[in-house]
Amino acid sequence: MKLIKCEIISNEKIGDELFKMTLFSPYIVKNAIPGQFVNIKCSENNNFDPLLRRPFSIHDVEPDFKVFSILYLLKGKGTYYLSELNSGDMVNFTGPLGNGIKTEEDENNDFLLIGGGIGVAPLYFLAKILSAQNKNVFFAAGFKYNNFLLIEKMFQRLKINYEIYSENGMHGTKGLITDFIMEKADDFKKYSIYCCGPVEMYRTLQNIFSLKDIKAKALFEEIMACGIGVCKGCVMKFKNNNGYVYKTVCKDGPLFDLMEAVFD
Ligand code: FES
Protein backbone atom coordinates (compact mmCIF):
# COMPACT_ATOMS: atom_id res chain seq x y z
CA MET A 1 0.00 0.00 0.00
CA LYS A 2 1.23 3.47 -0.88
CA LEU A 3 0.15 7.07 -0.58
CA ILE A 4 -0.29 8.07 -4.22
CA LYS A 5 -0.95 11.30 -6.09
CA CYS A 6 -1.99 10.72 -9.67
CA GLU A 7 -3.57 12.31 -12.70
CA ILE A 8 -7.17 11.87 -13.79
CA ILE A 9 -7.31 10.62 -17.37
CA SER A 10 -11.09 10.90 -17.65
CA ASN A 11 -14.09 11.45 -15.41
CA GLU A 12 -17.37 10.87 -17.20
CA LYS A 13 -21.01 10.56 -16.33
CA ILE A 14 -22.05 7.16 -17.65
CA GLY A 15 -25.56 6.88 -16.20
CA ASP A 16 -28.02 8.67 -13.96
CA GLU A 17 -25.87 9.80 -10.98
CA LEU A 18 -23.24 7.26 -12.05
CA PHE A 19 -19.66 8.27 -12.91
CA LYS A 20 -16.54 6.49 -14.10
CA MET A 21 -13.16 7.97 -13.21
CA THR A 22 -9.99 6.67 -14.87
CA LEU A 23 -6.65 7.36 -13.23
CA PHE A 24 -3.04 6.94 -14.33
CA SER A 25 -1.16 4.75 -11.82
CA PRO A 26 1.38 2.11 -12.88
CA TYR A 27 1.67 1.11 -9.18
CA ILE A 28 -2.04 0.25 -8.81
CA VAL A 29 -2.10 -1.47 -12.21
CA LYS A 30 0.84 -3.66 -11.18
CA ASN A 31 -0.29 -4.49 -7.65
CA ALA A 32 -4.10 -4.46 -7.38
CA ILE A 33 -6.21 -7.61 -7.32
CA PRO A 34 -10.04 -7.81 -7.57
CA GLY A 35 -11.86 -6.79 -4.40
CA GLN A 36 -9.22 -4.29 -3.32
CA PHE A 37 -10.00 -0.60 -3.05
CA VAL A 38 -8.45 2.86 -2.94
CA ASN A 39 -9.20 5.44 -0.23
CA ILE A 40 -9.48 8.82 -1.95
CA LYS A 41 -9.17 12.29 -0.41
CA CYS A 42 -12.31 14.06 -1.62
CA SER A 43 -11.30 17.68 -1.08
CA GLU A 44 -8.63 20.21 -2.10
CA ASN A 45 -5.14 19.93 -0.60
CA ASN A 46 -5.56 22.12 2.47
CA ASN A 47 -9.25 21.52 2.90
CA PHE A 48 -10.41 18.70 5.19
CA ASP A 49 -14.14 18.76 4.54
CA PRO A 50 -15.13 15.98 4.25
CA LEU A 51 -12.53 14.88 6.78
CA LEU A 52 -12.56 11.18 5.96
CA ARG A 53 -11.26 9.72 2.73
CA ARG A 54 -13.82 7.71 0.73
CA PRO A 55 -13.26 4.07 -0.25
CA PHE A 56 -13.84 3.05 -3.89
CA SER A 57 -13.46 -0.46 -5.28
CA ILE A 58 -11.10 -0.93 -8.15
CA HIS A 59 -13.45 -1.48 -11.08
CA ASP A 60 -11.07 -2.08 -13.96
CA VAL A 61 -7.36 -2.16 -14.72
CA GLU A 62 -5.85 -1.60 -18.17
CA PRO A 63 -2.19 -2.66 -18.07
CA ASP A 64 -1.46 -1.43 -21.63
CA PHE A 65 -2.28 2.13 -20.61
CA LYS A 66 -1.21 1.89 -16.93
CA VAL A 67 -4.65 3.15 -15.89
CA PHE A 68 -7.31 1.91 -13.52
CA SER A 69 -10.87 3.06 -12.97
CA ILE A 70 -13.49 3.39 -10.27
CA LEU A 71 -17.27 3.72 -10.55
CA TYR A 72 -19.14 5.96 -8.14
CA LEU A 73 -22.69 7.12 -7.55
CA LEU A 74 -23.35 10.71 -6.49
CA LYS A 75 -24.17 10.34 -2.82
CA GLY A 76 -22.86 13.31 -0.88
CA LYS A 77 -20.15 15.92 -0.50
CA GLY A 78 -17.25 13.57 -1.30
CA THR A 79 -18.61 12.13 -4.52
CA TYR A 80 -19.95 15.52 -5.59
CA TYR A 81 -16.39 16.89 -5.23
CA LEU A 82 -15.06 14.02 -7.37
CA SER A 83 -17.71 14.56 -10.04
CA GLU A 84 -16.51 18.15 -10.57
CA LEU A 85 -12.92 17.12 -11.34
CA ASN A 86 -11.61 17.04 -14.91
CA SER A 87 -8.97 15.16 -16.86
CA GLY A 88 -5.55 16.55 -15.92
CA ASP A 89 -6.58 17.24 -12.29
CA MET A 90 -4.74 15.33 -9.57
CA VAL A 91 -6.16 13.16 -6.78
CA ASN A 92 -4.60 11.79 -3.60
CA PHE A 93 -5.36 8.30 -2.38
CA THR A 94 -3.97 5.30 -0.55
CA GLY A 95 -4.04 1.87 -2.11
CA PRO A 96 -4.39 -0.80 -3.11
CA LEU A 97 -6.08 -1.64 0.22
CA GLY A 98 -7.84 -4.68 1.64
CA ASN A 99 -7.76 -8.40 1.33
CA GLY A 100 -8.87 -9.11 -2.23
CA ILE A 101 -9.65 -12.18 -4.32
CA LYS A 102 -6.64 -14.34 -5.20
CA THR A 103 -7.97 -16.00 -8.33
CA GLU A 104 -4.93 -18.27 -8.64
CA GLU A 105 -5.96 -19.98 -5.38
CA ASP A 106 -9.36 -21.04 -6.77
CA GLU A 107 -8.99 -24.04 -9.07
CA ASN A 108 -12.67 -24.17 -10.00
CA ASN A 109 -13.48 -23.58 -13.66
CA ASP A 110 -16.98 -22.17 -13.09
CA PHE A 111 -17.71 -18.86 -11.41
CA LEU A 112 -20.98 -17.12 -10.55
CA LEU A 113 -20.66 -13.41 -9.77
CA ILE A 114 -23.71 -11.69 -8.23
CA GLY A 115 -23.68 -7.91 -8.22
CA GLY A 116 -26.30 -5.52 -6.88
CA GLY A 117 -26.12 -1.85 -7.98
CA ILE A 118 -22.67 -0.33 -7.56
CA GLY A 119 -21.58 -3.79 -6.29
CA VAL A 120 -21.01 -4.74 -9.94
CA ALA A 121 -17.93 -2.45 -9.95
CA PRO A 122 -15.37 -4.75 -8.23
CA LEU A 123 -16.94 -7.91 -9.68
CA TYR A 124 -16.36 -6.61 -13.19
CA PHE A 125 -12.60 -6.50 -12.46
CA LEU A 126 -12.88 -10.10 -11.21
CA ALA A 127 -14.84 -11.17 -14.31
CA LYS A 128 -12.17 -9.67 -16.55
CA ILE A 129 -9.34 -11.51 -14.79
CA LEU A 130 -11.26 -14.81 -14.79
CA SER A 131 -12.24 -14.57 -18.43
CA ALA A 132 -8.57 -13.87 -19.33
CA GLN A 133 -7.83 -17.17 -17.54
CA ASN A 134 -10.44 -18.87 -19.78
CA LYS A 135 -12.74 -19.61 -16.84
CA ASN A 136 -16.47 -19.99 -17.31
CA VAL A 137 -18.04 -16.83 -15.85
CA PHE A 138 -21.73 -16.12 -15.28
CA PHE A 139 -22.53 -12.59 -14.11
CA ALA A 140 -25.91 -12.02 -12.45
CA ALA A 141 -26.51 -8.28 -12.02
CA GLY A 142 -29.43 -6.45 -10.45
CA PHE A 143 -30.25 -2.73 -10.52
CA LYS A 144 -33.01 -0.44 -9.32
CA TYR A 145 -33.58 1.05 -12.79
CA ASN A 146 -31.56 1.66 -15.98
CA ASN A 147 -28.59 3.75 -14.81
CA PHE A 148 -26.10 0.90 -15.38
CA LEU A 149 -26.93 0.33 -19.06
CA LEU A 150 -23.26 0.48 -20.06
CA ILE A 151 -22.36 -2.57 -17.99
CA GLU A 152 -24.15 -4.84 -20.46
CA LYS A 153 -21.80 -3.83 -23.28
CA MET A 154 -18.87 -4.53 -20.97
CA PHE A 155 -20.15 -8.06 -20.26
CA GLN A 156 -20.57 -8.60 -24.01
CA ARG A 157 -17.00 -7.46 -24.64
CA LEU A 158 -15.73 -10.03 -22.13
CA LYS A 159 -17.87 -12.67 -23.88
CA ILE A 160 -19.24 -13.93 -20.58
CA ASN A 161 -22.74 -15.19 -19.85
CA TYR A 162 -24.92 -12.81 -17.92
CA GLU A 163 -28.41 -12.05 -16.68
CA ILE A 164 -29.66 -8.57 -15.81
CA TYR A 165 -32.65 -7.70 -13.63
CA SER A 166 -34.02 -4.31 -12.66
CA GLU A 167 -36.65 -3.53 -10.06
CA ASN A 168 -38.80 -1.46 -12.43
CA GLY A 169 -38.12 -3.51 -15.57
CA MET A 170 -36.29 -0.69 -17.38
CA HIS A 171 -33.20 -2.86 -17.87
CA GLY A 172 -33.33 -6.61 -18.36
CA THR A 173 -35.97 -8.70 -16.61
CA LYS A 174 -38.27 -7.02 -14.11
CA GLY A 175 -37.58 -8.14 -10.54
CA LEU A 176 -34.73 -8.71 -8.13
CA ILE A 177 -31.57 -10.53 -9.09
CA THR A 178 -32.14 -12.71 -6.03
CA ASP A 179 -35.36 -13.98 -7.75
CA PHE A 180 -33.15 -15.30 -10.53
CA ILE A 181 -30.69 -16.86 -8.06
CA MET A 182 -33.55 -18.52 -6.15
CA GLU A 183 -34.86 -20.05 -9.36
CA LYS A 184 -31.50 -21.19 -10.70
CA ALA A 185 -29.52 -21.92 -7.51
CA ASP A 186 -29.29 -25.64 -8.21
CA ASP A 187 -27.59 -24.96 -11.56
CA PHE A 188 -24.79 -23.12 -9.79
CA LYS A 189 -24.09 -25.59 -6.98
CA LYS A 190 -20.65 -26.48 -8.30
CA TYR A 191 -19.66 -22.88 -9.07
CA SER A 192 -17.39 -20.65 -6.97
CA ILE A 193 -19.68 -17.78 -6.00
CA TYR A 194 -18.70 -14.18 -5.26
CA CYS A 195 -21.19 -11.41 -4.51
CA CYS A 196 -21.18 -7.70 -3.86
CA GLY A 197 -24.20 -5.54 -3.19
CA PRO A 198 -26.51 -4.07 -0.55
CA VAL A 199 -27.32 -5.69 2.81
CA GLU A 200 -30.87 -6.66 1.69
CA MET A 201 -29.35 -8.65 -1.17
CA TYR A 202 -26.92 -10.38 1.19
CA ARG A 203 -29.71 -11.31 3.62
CA THR A 204 -31.76 -12.90 0.83
CA LEU A 205 -28.72 -14.73 -0.56
CA GLN A 206 -27.90 -16.10 2.89
CA ASN A 207 -31.45 -17.50 3.12
CA ILE A 208 -31.30 -19.06 -0.35
CA PHE A 209 -27.81 -20.52 0.06
CA SER A 210 -28.47 -21.94 3.53
CA LEU A 211 -31.57 -23.71 2.17
CA LYS A 212 -29.54 -25.12 -0.73
CA ASP A 213 -26.34 -25.72 1.24
CA ILE A 214 -24.28 -23.49 -1.07
CA LYS A 215 -21.14 -21.59 -0.08
CA ALA A 216 -20.38 -18.06 -1.24
CA LYS A 217 -17.91 -15.27 -0.62
CA ALA A 218 -18.89 -11.62 -0.40
CA LEU A 219 -17.23 -8.24 -0.66
CA PHE A 220 -18.56 -5.98 2.10
CA GLU A 221 -18.68 -2.23 2.34
CA GLU A 222 -18.55 -0.11 5.49
CA ILE A 223 -17.94 3.52 6.32
CA MET A 224 -14.18 3.78 6.60
CA ALA A 225 -11.67 6.20 8.07
CA CYS A 226 -8.08 4.92 8.15
CA GLY A 227 -8.58 2.07 5.65
CA ILE A 228 -5.70 0.10 7.19
CA GLY A 229 -7.16 -1.64 10.25
CA VAL A 230 -6.17 0.95 12.88
CA CYS A 231 -9.25 3.00 13.84
CA LYS A 232 -11.71 0.05 14.08
CA GLY A 233 -14.38 2.25 12.51
CA CYS A 234 -15.40 -0.40 10.00
CA VAL A 235 -15.92 -3.53 12.12
CA MET A 236 -18.54 -6.12 11.21
CA LYS A 237 -19.83 -9.07 13.21
CA PHE A 238 -19.20 -12.67 12.09
CA LYS A 239 -20.11 -16.07 13.43
CA ASN A 240 -17.29 -18.36 14.48
CA ASN A 241 -16.95 -21.59 16.47
CA ASN A 242 -17.04 -19.76 19.80
CA GLY A 243 -19.97 -17.50 19.01
CA TYR A 244 -19.14 -14.18 17.39
CA VAL A 245 -16.11 -12.23 16.38
CA TYR A 246 -15.63 -8.67 15.07
CA LYS A 247 -13.45 -8.07 12.02
CA THR A 248 -12.38 -4.94 10.16
CA VAL A 249 -13.81 -4.69 6.66
CA CYS A 250 -10.84 -2.62 5.42
CA LYS A 251 -8.03 -4.94 6.49
CA ASP A 252 -9.47 -8.39 7.33
CA GLY A 253 -11.80 -7.93 4.35
CA PRO A 254 -13.52 -6.72 2.30
CA LEU A 255 -13.67 -10.38 1.20
CA PHE A 256 -15.45 -12.66 3.70
CA ASP A 257 -17.48 -15.84 3.84
CA LEU A 258 -21.03 -14.60 3.16
CA MET A 259 -22.59 -17.24 5.40
CA GLU A 260 -20.60 -16.12 8.47
CA ALA A 261 -21.69 -12.47 8.30
CA VAL A 262 -24.22 -11.23 10.86
CA PHE A 263 -26.45 -8.32 9.82
CA ASP A 264 -27.99 -7.06 13.10
FE1 FES B 1 -10.03 2.09 10.16
FE2 FES B 1 -11.13 -0.04 8.97
S1 FES B 1 -11.34 2.01 8.42
S2 FES B 1 -10.04 0.03 10.84
Sequence-ordered SSE layout with sheet pairings:
Elements: E1 2-15, E2 18-24, H1 26-31, E3 37-40, E4 54-57, E5 60-62, E6 67-73, H2 77-83, E7 90-97, E8 110-116, H3 120-132, E9 136-143, H4 149-158, E10 161-166, E11 173-174, H5 177-184, E12 192-196, H6 199-212, E13 217-219, E14 235-240, E15 243-248, E16 255-257, E17 261-262
Parallel strand pairs: 8-9, 8-12, 9-10, 10-11, 12-13
Antiparallel strand pairs: 1-2, 1-7, 2-6, 3-4, 3-7, 5-6, 13-16, 14-15, 14-17
Bound molecules: FE2/S2 (inorganic) cluster.
Oligomer: single chain
Distance between the termini: 32 Å
**What's the CATH first level of the largest domain?**
Alpha Beta
CATH architecture of the largest domain: 3-Layer(aba) Sandwich
Mean pLDDT: 94
Instruction: Please list the strands of the largest sheet in the order they lie side by side.
Output: 4-3-7-1-2-6-5
Provide the gyration radius in Å.
18 Å
Q: What composes the largest sheet?
A: 7 strands, antiparallel
What is the overall number of helices? 6
Tell me how many strands there are.
Answer: 17
Domain tally: 2
What is the approximate shape?
A: globular
Would you give an account of this structure?
It contains 6 helices and 17 strands. The protein is globular and about 55 Å long. The model has no long low-confidence stretch (mean pLDDT 94). The protein is 22% helix and 36% strand. The chain has a 7-stranded antiparallel sheet. Strands 11-10-9-8-12-13-16 form a 7-stranded mixed sheet, with helices on both faces. It folds into 2 domains: 2-97, Beta Barrel (Elongation Factor Tu (Ef-tu), domain 3), CATH 2.40.30.10; 103-219, Nucleotide-binding domain of ferredoxin-NADP reductase (FNR) module (Rossmann fold, 3-Layer(aba) Sandwich), CATH 3.40.50. Helix 3 packs parallel to helix 4. The longest helix has 14 residues, at 199-212. It is an alpha/beta fold. Strand 9 (136-143), helix 4 (149-158) and strand 10 form a beta-alpha-beta unit. The structure holds FE2/S2 (inorganic) cluster. The site of FE2/S2 (inorganic) cluster has 12 residues, from loops.
